Amino acid sequence: APAIVVPGWDISIDTPSEVWDDILSHPQCVFARTSPQQKLIIVENCQKRGHVVAVTGDGVNDSPALKKADIGIAMGIMGTDVSKEAADMILLDDNFASIVNGIESGRLIFDNLKKSIAYTLSSNIPEISPFLAFILVQIPLPLSTVLILLVDLGTDMVPAISMAWENAEADIMGRNPRDANVDRLVTLKLISFAYLQIGVIQALSGFYTYLTILNDYGFNPSVLPGLGAVDAWGKNTLLCKVRYGAWVNFEGQVCPCFVNPHENPAICGKVANVEWWTAESKRNLVISECQTAGYIYWDEDTSLSYVENGVGKRDPPATNEACAFPAKQLFGGASNPATGFNAFDFNTYWNPTNGGLYSGNSATTGQPTAESLEALRSRTCDTANDDGCLFYYEYLPYRSVMSQYYNMHWNAWPVSDSNVPGLGPNVDPSILFTYQPIGFYRLWETGPNVDRSTTMGHISDVMKVSTDESNPMRVTDAFYTGGYLDQTPGMPWITQN
Asked: How far, in Å, are 139, 283, 448 from residue 445 at the CA level?
């Protein structure tokens, strides 16, 4: 039978465990005419079998059982002071239906806590995976520590708190009582759900968005590995080896040297008769003239047309083969800048009393030079065929310019403007040398103490600067004091004093 009635005189402290097993195996048990000691025995035997026991009572004789139970419930109206003192909870209205409401509220709180914990844990995977990709693949860091703090404190906190106000699920009172030894707040199931399911989906979605946006701005995923290696992304000039495409100005107009060079002798006079489609070296000549005229943006979505042997042809789709930063090859010997350091006065970059040239923290901060940039800009051959030789160019993708978020003022910024962080004559050197500094360094050899290499097509630190004052490596006396943010040496769109 599913139910059993047990009179109090049938149980005692000496009742065998097998008898209690049989009694408590029934889903419905009724104990009649029990003494305070027998009530206590009933509670103890239920607890021995792993049950969470709740006891209700209103009299003094119920106090031992109320105290022993996991949850002692006393009556607020009819209950004695002793029973209220022994109980964990008091029913103010003496209505047993309030116990059901309390159980429902407890289950709701437990559910909402699990939801809040799962929501909070799920953000760990998408927050750590960008750092793993940054370390292992060396892509530009997708999510900085400041952004993680903004996500955790600015956006995650309110939704996590809001979980506490979730309404109860429809089946909340139809579930079996949870096992307190198994169904805890944080379980393996919850962790696998938060980390391996929701966390992975969030991480994949984040990487998809990251790669899609960068691709829309002209940085395709194939060129990203390695660009985050030396903390140069967004701080140094990026050069890319591109194939085909068109060179356009800020308005998107294609350089006339590729379209009608004879009609623009002022721009294209030197290359008017160059058949640029026959070899990359010839195309490079035309590109250099176009950049001189201000056509500095590479448009991969435009294919150039030409006529060869009377037949009209068009370039294949454009591709970005590879990107690299000029090698940070210059490490100054001075640990501190000269007194009265001025970003526009090259003499103050030299501190003879502290080891010579100051280029930032010499232990960690190298600086690119004109030589390292020219090494990238020089011809690099992939094959013996001239058509397989590509050139690195300062990379300004026109896709970025077409974005609705692009600010045309980014094209030109007076470096003397002290209101712009990192610019102005009195800028903090620690900030200035974190980025590619104003102007550029020019290196030359005057003695055997210089270990110099200009054959870099990749990121490497290959310069050891002599601290011998008779053989200084100092900055050039030609400094750029106004122009576009990309202050690459040798490029014609930079104004110079």
From this structure: 35, 33, 8
